[in-house]
Amino acid sequence: MGRARGMVDALRGLELDVACHQSRFARFAADFLCCNPFRDRSNCSGVLMFAVNYGLLFWGELHVSSGLAAVLQATIPIFGMLSAHLMLPDEPLRLQKLLGALLALGGVAMICERLLGFSGLMAFWGGLGIVFGAACAAFSNVLLKARVIQLAPSMIAGWQMIFGAAPLLVTGFIVEGNPARFHWSALSLFCLLYLAVIGSALTFLLLYWLLPRMTVARLQAISLITPPGAVMLGWAIGGETFSLWSLVGACFVLAGVWMIFRKAEVRELAGQQDERGTQFPEG
Questions:
Q1: Is 41 helix (H, G, I), strand (E, B) or coil?
Q2: Among 193, 227, 198, CA closest to 76
Q3: Sequence spans of domains, the chain
């Protein structure tokens, strides 16, 4: 999740030279080639994750500030908990997890406070689109876990990118025209390569490797580390100021993530103790 700052800079550079939907398609087409997923098939939850979520996110960022977009995207763990509660019997909604997610969301808002901006009717629709995309991304992960697809992470990621890239390609041709006519500068190509390999291919390989090994709440809570991680990198590498307000917000995020993880750890330890008691009865 520490990739956030580099992704934001690369994304801004790419969007300066290439139209929105066409750059999204090119990115995920490159991701697909990195994953090489030609041996099996997955489901179309990739449409939710890549086409709907990222399409609405990057469209919404044309009308709202980056800080507000980060806060709205941080609602993914909350939507994930609600979806998991309805679809995964082993992952019921816990009050402590929900409170932890809300606390972390408040911390993200504090970190991004100086970047928050909202004005006009299109800003409202842009923000609503980002929230809807976040809900689709959360539901996509839950749906994938509920179906227990027995595929390698590269196969899942690759086929999801196919399903996600196709609607983006069609939308791009209709709205923005032929991508071959756009100006692809060296900066655009570099940003595209970075986003494809580091920002998507590697990230989603790790995501789908972890998905069967962790609960949805714990897995999606990792995304909450992105804003404080970006602020820390900006302070350590970019020479940016690290305000006390951002430090307090980062503490809120870490405390919220700890609340999400702590409940599961307590239950796991209790389960292990019960199992040991069953295997080695006293007397």
A1: coil
A2: 227
A3: 4-279
Residue identified by tokens 């909202």 is 118
Cβ atoms of 70 and 236 closer than 8 Å = no
Structure confidence by residue, pLDDT tens digits, 46-95: 888 889 998 998 898 888 877 778 888 888 999 999 999 999 988 898 88
Burial of 45: CB neighbours in 10 Å, binned 0-12, 13-18, 19+: buried
Whole-prediction pTM? 0.71
Q: Which residue has the tokens 């399409």?
A: 55
